[in-house]
Amino acid sequence: MYSTGFNTNQIMRQVIYALALGISASYIFFGWGIVIQILLGVVSALVIEAAFMAIRGRPVLESISDGSAVLTAVLLAISIPSIAPWWIIVVGVAFAIIFGKQLYGGLGSNPFNPAMLGYAFLLISYPLQMTTWPVDFSAFSQAINIIFNALSFDGLSGATRLDEVKTGLSLGNNLATMQVHSTSQAWINAGFLVGGIYLLVRKVIFWHIPVAFLSGIIVMALLVLIFDSQTHLPVQNHLMLGGTMLGAFFIATDPVSASTTPKGRLIYGFLIGVLIVVIRNYGGYPDGVAFAVLLINMTVPLIDHFTQPKVFGRA
Amino acid sequence: MSSYSYPGGVVIANPYPVDQVKIIQSPLPDKVVLPLQQRIGEEAKPCIEVGDRVLTGQVIAQTEDQFCVPIHASISGIVTAIDKQAIPHKSGLKSTCISIESDGKDEWIKTKGCGSDFLHCDKQTIIDYIQHSGVVGLGGAGFPSHAKLNKAIDCHTLIINGTECEPGMMCDEALMQHHPREVIRGVEILLHITGAQQAIIAIEDDKQEAYQSLLMFNHNDRISFAQLPAKYTSGAEKLLIKALLDVEIPSGGFAADKGILCQNVSSVKAIFDAVIDHRPLVSRIVTITGDALTPTNVEVRLGTSFEQVISLTDVNNQAHDYRMGGMMMGVDIETTQMPICKITNCIFVNNKTLKQPAKECIRCNTCNTVCPIGLLPQQLYWHAKSENIEKCTDYHLSDCIECACCSYVCPSNIDLVSYFSFAKALDKKQTADQERIDIARDRFEFREYRLDRNKEERSQMMAEKKQALKEKMAKDKEQGLEQTDKIAQAMARVKKTKEDNV
Amino acid sequence: MIESVVIFSGLTLVLGLILGYAAIRFKVKGNPLVDQIDAILPQTQCGQCDFAGCRPYAEALAKGEAQINQCPPGGQEGADALAELLNVETLALNEEHGESNARHVVYVDEKLCIGCTLCIQACPVDAFVGASKVMTTVIEEECTGCDLCIPVCPVDCIYVREINPTLLTFVPTIPGEAHV
Asked: What pLDDT sits at residue A153?
């Protein structure tokens, strides 16, 4: 009696598969770090989720096999620096699953995006580790050493391009004198873009949120550029730097925390896009995807209330 | 003309297609069970007793009001029982039924009708014949046809619903293929009664034989055909009207208010039977389908048990799941010892399978994209689950037609419709309870008021009486000792009488 | 420093005056809390709560002189609804006040009735029809099932009839939960 579309477990798995391209791009540029982080994250996620479901008296095997905890862990592992110490991902995943999902009632009941909640918690609590990004390829043994033994290698860590631009601007430098383009970030974003298009084609996600998200970024970036093109990034850099594509197709589209009505989704995506540009330009952190998503998650009930679709037979 | 579309709905391929649509004539059943509670209206009261012999087509039960239709015997024989029997209803409750054991003769009672000369028959008379023949909406709603016709004043368009209500059903298709003459004549009867300018017969575009069959018999230029793309919920009246005429009947309103009358094609044939052949509704065509047999249609007397009907097919020997109604809106039933009712349009017989467990709702909103009414099933689900009926009403729970498109597409396999029927029933119960409580409160307060008022009236009356007595006594005093005088005189009279008698 | 003291005192004075004015000008007549509580109570007027009816119990609850779990006809749902209204912890129904049963009505066995009218006088909602030395019967739609008539009948001719769900009043259960 049920349709031939995807069921919930399959949806989660499709999203994880679609991330593969972007993860591969990250591996090519920055090495084994990301793979190790993902493995660590997935194992911790499964253990913590199983423990919590057992405490709550719910069936354990069913819930860890639905793929949602794994997806949260993978998204978080992609968002953090791939050379962060091992306990960063473990603590982040624990916070995301416990405070971002289980305490609200489990799958389907969380108002906030769990991966982003975990990221925000990590960023605020451990700013040093969370702003030390890789700048070059790390081999497997190097990655293990950095992650588990906290060894640091010269020339292997630094700030992201967005971070450098922001620091440069605050020091009074002109945008024209700075290197704004980042090949590695552009390729990674392209990887996630392709993955996102795959999800759209397979009808795993609806088009409303990614399109509105990217429109929001474009519109706000253009608006800001009109006022001052010297100290603000061009539009294409906004799209290809930082977590833009990941956010558009994988993070903002999390169905549980996003708006549910079609019109509401357009507004939701657009507001997130706008807020990201605002935070990038005027906020304290170099990339604003996580905070923008969390803030707009808070307004979702309001958006939903005012964007109900027209009912047949009613004016 | 509209593009024959409405938003929402799901395209579902026929899960059990057949090459040829046939109708098997069921032999006379040995026994029929006829429920007194029809889908809409009050429970009918029997007008025969146990042990009576009844003829086919004889009225055996009626309700007091004129809204409902009478119940007829579907075979001739002896009434063996009037007691509670299992009926196909999702509650599993039993209801009073009349059981008749067949005498094998199928002797019909004499009935009246218009004959083929219906054009010279008075419209109200025709509607009365339709009511007395027990015709209700045979598409599944069971609404009394005469009541619909009575309301259809100023009707300008007639819509004949030949779209099969659900995927997998073929009873209407079979009827149109094998009895086209009766269908067209029935439409002409309706045109005569309502005075409509046009009749549109709606058929799905994958039923070409039925369409050709009807086309051949149609010589009336007021009757036209519309071929709709095959999509589930095209059979819902309001959505069909939207698809054909681009008119949206307002929530809570009726098609009759807009001058449109919609009748299912099986009901139209039943009207033909009633008016021209003057035969009451005693049989219907039922689709038997599923993966446990070759799908087919059976023409069977009302009240025949499901078991007997299924035995006419080539059903296999495995354990089965049974379902009355379609794959979307039907009701799962435990046993086949149930009678065929007027609204039984389909029986599913499937090999037993495990039900998929439901997971949590992930708010993906796929349900809203397929809802033909444009509701938010996911919000209704959350609020129905927490029994917050007020919020459900805010989200227009009453507009839900329970088509189950949302349950069908839900990736978490949640049976959404069961939550909505629960919420509707709970709403009905709570409203009834609240009314009852308010009336009880009023009665209690009135009683308090009544007792107080009685007490006051009584004390007032006593006070007035006392006052009157006082005044009387004062008046007597004024006029002297008349009181004592009178007593003395009376005693003297008594003494004298005693002395006289001695 | 002085400025902040002056500013805040001034603010406090102004806001206090506004609140005082509002408390007098917009005072609600009557005691709506009692009405709200009374709207939740089932109006059986049975007295099982140890008060003389639903309204006296509502008044006692509003004053804080009674517990929310004293009403068996309201059931646990009623107690929970009262807890929500009064913003207190919900309590389990107090068994000392009686059992919470499914809704029922009473009926008179007319063969035994002697027309004493004691039941008519006992019924708090006047659900009886009858008079002295005339047979009495119950109007089933008006009966609240308070059972006050049963003990007063001298010939014990009043019996209880359960109300069972019919096809039209049936409430289905939702998957995984039982609902009465």
From this structure: 65
Q: Which residues pair with C158 in a beta bridge?
A: C108
pLDDT tens, position by position, A3-52: 667 888 899 999 999 999 999 999 999 989 999 999 999 999 999 999 99
The values of phi and psi at residue C155, to 5°, are -110, 10
Contacts of A112 in chain B (CB under 8 A): none
Do chains A and C touch by CB distance (3+ pairs < 8 Å)? no
Nearest CB to B374; choose among A11, A255, A310: A310
Q: Compute φ and ψ for C108, nearest 5 degrees.
A: -100, 135
Instruction: Domain B112-279: give its CATH architecture.
Output: 3-Layer(aba) Sandwich (3.40)
- Per residue in A136-164, pLDDT (tens digit) is 888 888 888 888 887 666 666 777 888 88
Residues in B touching A110 (Cβ below 8 Å):
none
Mean pLDDT of all residues in B381-403: 93
Mean pLDDT rounded to a whole number for chain B: 90
Contact yes or no for B422 and C43 at CB 8 A? no
Interface contact flag, A255 B251, Cβ < 8 Å: no
- Other CB atoms closer than 10 Å to residue A106's CB: what's the count? 17
Q: Scanning every residue of chain C, which has its alpha carbon at the shortest distance from the alpha carbon of B424?
A: C171
Q: How many CB atoms lie within 10 A of CB A66?
A: 23
How close does chain B come to A311, measured CA to CA in Å?
5
Tell me how far apart the alpha carbons of residues B384 and B420 are, in angstroms, rounded to a whole number: 7
| Angstroms from B497 CA to nearest CA on chain C | 44
CA angle C69, C74, C77 (to 5 degrees): 80
Contacts of B447 in chain C (CB under 8 A): 124-126
Residue ranges per domain, chain B?
112-279, 354-474
Flag whether residue C44 sits within 8 Å of chain B, measured between CB atoms: yes
How do residues B338-351 score in pLDDT, each as one tens digit? 999 998 999 999 99
Cβ distance B313 to B333 under 8 Å?
no
Residue B430 · residue B374 · CB < 8 Å: no
A263 interfaces chain B, CB cutoff of 8 Å: no
In this complex, the residue of C54, C141, C171 whose CB is nearest that of residue B422 is C171
Q: Which amino acid is at A96?
A: A
**Residue C141, C-beta contacts closer than 8 angstroms, at least 6 positions apart:** B436
Domain boundaries, chain A: 31-158, 159-307
CA A194, CA B331: separation in Å to the nearest integer?
A: 45
In whole numbers, what is the pLDDT of chain A averaged over residues?
89
Q: Give the tens place of pLDDT for each residue, C88-116.
A: 888 888 777 777 777 889 999 988 889 88
Minimum distance, in Å, between the CA of residue B59 and any CA atom of chain A: 39
Contact partners for chain A, using 3 or more CB pairs closer than 8 A, are: B
The string of pLDDT tens digits covering residues B230-244 is 899 888 999 999 999
Residues of A in contact with B361 (CB under 8 A): 108
User: Chain B partners of C126 at a C-beta cutoff of 8 Å?
Assistant: 443, 446-447, 450
Does the distance separating the beta carbons of B396 and A314 come in below 8 Å? yes
Which domains are seen in chain C, by residue range?
32-97 (1.10.15.40), 104-162 (3.30.70.20)
Kindly tell me if the per-residue pLDDT of C180 is higher than 50: no
What's the token pair of residue B320? Answer: 């089965």
Strands ordered across the beta sheet of B94-102: B31-35, B94-102, B77-86, B53-54
Q: Which of B10, B365, B414, B418 to mutate to test the interface with A (most CBs of A within 10 A)?
A: B365
Task: Report pLDDT digits (tens) over A74-131.
Answer: 999 999 998 899 999 999 999 999 999 999 988 889 999 999 999 999 999 998 888 8
Would you call A206 an interface residue with chain B, using a CB distance cutoff of 8 Å? yes
Share of chain B above pLDDT 70, in %: 98
Q: What are B160-183's pLDDT values in tens digits?
A: 999 988 888 999 999 999 999 999
As a whole number, mean pLDDT of residues B416-430 equals 93
